[in-house]
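User: Fold this; tokens only.

Assistant: Input:
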Amino acid sequence: MTSHAPTLAAERQRVYRARKRNGARFMRGDLSSEAVDALIAGGWIGVGEVGDPAKLAEAVADLIDCWARGTLRPPRRPGVTS
């Protein structure tokens, strides 16, 4: 018997359901260069990380989470310099 890897669509659906079950939501949007510059200036992301979509998304998510908790301080990340 041959085992089959899940299709990309099935994997996306599995991840979507897991996020929804955990209360997370997915969003997609554009960030202006000014917004990216503000993330860098605020210490949310390093200059060398802005080209990585996952790092950029993590920085935005961290900013929103801190705003929601009322603690707008960037996390201490190794290697992140303004």
